[in-house]
Amino acid sequence: MILLNILVLVFEILYYSMFMYYAKGEGKFKRYLLLFSLITIIMMFTGTNNVYIYLMFIFMYYYGYKYIVKEKVLFYDLFILYLMIILKVIVEMFLSYPIYFIVNNIYIATIIVGIFKNLLIYFNKLNIRNIYKNLNKIWNKNNFYIRYIFGILGVFYIMLSCIYLIIECI
Question: What's the rounded Cα separation, in Å, for the pair 29 and 63?
Answer without folding.
Answer: 17
